[in-house]
Known about the structure:
Helices cover about 45% and strands about 15% of the residues. It contains 10 helices and 5 strands. A hairpin with a 5-residue loop joins strand 1 (about 145-155) and strand 2. Helix 3 (about 50-60) crosses helix 4, helix 7 (about 100-120) packs antiparallel against helix 8 (about 130-140) and helix 9 (about 175-185) packs parallel to helix 10. It is elongated and about 65 Å long.
Amino acid sequence: MTYQSNQFAELSLPLFQAATPVVTEDDPTHEFARIREHFMNNGPEAVPDYDVLTLVLLRAIPDFSVKALAVRLLSEFGDFNHVISAPASRLREVEGVTTAVLQELKLVETAAHRLARAKIMNREVLSSWDALLDYCQTRMAHQSTEQFRVLFLDRKNVLIADEAQGAGTVDHVPVYPREVIKRALELNASAFILVHNHPSGDPTPSAEDIAMTKTIRSAGDVLGIVLHDHLVIGKSGHTSLRSEGLI
């Protein structure tokens, strides 16, 4: 009887007129609005990873299933940084990750890399060391395979180029000292900084890392190109071979 009464009430609406939805505090729509307001009023530091990820995913999935996907991604990868930095192949394995979701996550990752890079490009690196470390951490800490990069500097130690010289496996990346020095000469660089990551998370340099660094330093010395440092990047920190007295 109640069902018939509600049914007739709906039919009594004028033709083509839809009932205005009522948003209550229990409605997920209200929750999304609350998250946005909290983000704008209190800044990103006050918003937990789950809420930030939810706001990002809403751009690709404008419905309530976004909440469950945010939970699955954080459960799989641990935190916001690991989610956006995860390889596309692994992200696609998570239920609910569509092409649109993948695009949004990788767009955020790209923006983070470019913002960090902009703080050091064409600037005197040795006086902006913290910004350099932040960039290297952002760019490489969450990579699933080893990557070897070289930061080339001019005679005033201004960063003129940041280039990936090689990519490898989870525990090895091929490095060719001759190619590093050749590229430095092509760029007319006066100095350089080596950077590579350890996907294991432990930034402790290996014996091979130390030997390779000394080889490149010696080659640079012959041509008057200075090796300032070799940074090994881990998930939560880094090791400077120069600070450790290893070069």
